[in-house]
Amino acid sequence: MSPRSRHAKKARRIVVLNERDLDNPRSGGAEIHVFEIFSRLAARGHAVRLVAASFRGAAPAVTMQGIAVRRLAGNRYSYYPELPFALRRELAAEPADVVVDVLNKLPFFTPLVSRVPCCAIVHHLFGRTAFGQVPFPIAVATAVAETAIPFAYRRTPILAISESTRDDLIARGIPGSHVVVAPPGIDAVAYTPGPPDPRPPLILWIGRLEHYKRADVMIEAFVDIRRRVRGARLAVIGSGQARGMLEDLVHRRGLGEAVEFTGFISEARKIEYLQRAAVLVNTSVKEGFGLTVIEGNACGTPNVSTDVPGLRDSVRDGETGLLVPFNDTVALADAAVRVLTDRALRDRLVAGGLAWAETFSWEHAADVTEDVIEAAIAGTPAAVQGMPPAVHDAPPA
User: Fold this and answer.
1) What letter would DSSP give residue 196?
2) Burial label, 189 (beta-carbon count in 10 A; 0-12, 13-18, 19+)
3) Distance (Å, whole) CA 80 – CA 74
4) Any bridge partners for residue 118, and if so which?
5) What is the pLDDT of residues 261-285, one digit of tens each?
6) What residues contact 289, with CB distance under 8 A and at least 6 apart?
7) Which residue in 360, 374, 315, 314 sits closest to 12, CA to CA?
């Protein structure tokens, strides 16, 4: 039976709760995931509304990619306490068949505040990593709120974007039978290999410049890499609060013009970098899923990533990239140098990465999301039990 044949043909009225929309200056991978999925559901005939936080210069309402976006007045801090009241008003004005909680920051607890069926999409939970990312009071609030997730969502069908996230949910008390895994997809038309090797020894680091992403580990490792690989360069792609600190570190380590900070760049420019880089590095302490890793694979760029939740789901160690211990600059430098200098290893990782990237599909992720939505509307999380816990195929042999 094909994935599409499982789905009800009836159009659903879907309300999605997520702090940010794509135009928000702080949007990231979670927002890309939300819009890739729900723009496809909108194209299939579902009526999709997103309730998000406002930001400076934002219109209160806009339609993007077929999704009606409503932004609550205030800011991202007032968004969470206001949302329960705003959701009630939203549902009273225009009923919905289901509410989808996107849990990648504070949980919304919709099952406790609304009688409308609810399901959830979970990118990752913060746990103790919140204390390294946000001010202490917010980190405490996040950690405390997450302890209530098993109670609030105990009967809720949940889609996790990686096996690591599923394992985290189960460890916190969510029944495993309620959680299915559907990883993100990629745009196979846009993300394609660049010119064939040899590529210049350019290393990429891509992500938000926040403390928990640990770009500083890459910079420290690059001191050693530069000594061992002639002409090695590093491009740090992204924006965020840690940029000043990272630029100071580059200056203190005497790396000078060997390190480039691009700031935020367009998707097209990111692809150009991936198509000419020799290796992509991810040093984060935790991820929901390393989508940039797969995008790099599709562009023929091997990766070196820390062996942490999320990244170990996107990297097949020794086949599509290399995993190294977290915060180990020596191991990181050694692995990057191997990819830069060992042609046989590099060829193997490139070939494995290209095959691995071909197995990721946004259409498939949208299919599974529809299944989870239907389970929520039916009020039978057991419907999720009919799906395998992991719905992602292994790479071709």
Assistant:
1) P
2) exposed
3) 10
4) 99
5) 999 899 999 999 999 999 999 999 8
6) 123, 161, 162, 165, 183, 184, 310, 313, 314
7) 374
Q: What is the pLDDT of residue 133?
A: 60
CA-only gyration radius of the chain, Å: 21
In the chain, what are the domains?
3-185+361-385 (3.40.50.2000), 202-357 (3.40.50.2000)
Per-residue pLDDT tens over the stretch 225-237:
999 999 999 999 9
Mean pLDDT (the chain) is 89
Q: State the residue for tokens 């924006």.
A: 239
In this structure, of 61-75, 109-123, 346-360, 367-381, the range with the lowest mean pLDDT score is 367-381
CA distance 96 to 15: 7
- In one letter, which amino acid is 207? G
Q: What strand order describes the sheet that includes 118-122? A: 61-64, 67-72, 47-53, 13-17, 98-103, 118-122, 158-160, 179-181
Q: Which is nearest to 371 in space by CA: 8, 2, 98? A: 8
- pLDDT category, 389, cuts 50, 70, 90? very low
CA 366 to chain centre: 15
Q: What token pair was written down for 282?
A: 């991810």
CA distance 298 to 202: 17
Question: How far is the CA of 169 from the CAs of 24, 103, 144, 188, in angstroms?
Answer: 28, 11, 15, 30
Please state the pTM of the whole predicted model: 0.86
Q: How many residues does the chain have?
A: 397
Confidence of residue 381 (pLDDT cuts 50, 70, 90): low
CA distance 111 to 129: 26
Could you read off the pLDDT of 104-138 as tens digits, one per residue?
A: 878 899 999 999 999 999 997 865 655 556 555 66
pLDDT, greater one: 275 or 256: 275
Two tokens, residue 299: 């562009």
Burial of 304 (0-12, 13-18, 19+ CB in 10 A): buried
Burial 256-272 (b: 16+ CB within 10 A, else e): eebbebeeebeeeebbe
Percent of the chain with pLDDT over 70: 89
The helix/strand/coil state of 177 is helix
- Pull the structure tokens for residue 167: 């394992």
SS3 90: helix
Residue with tokens 């077929």: 66
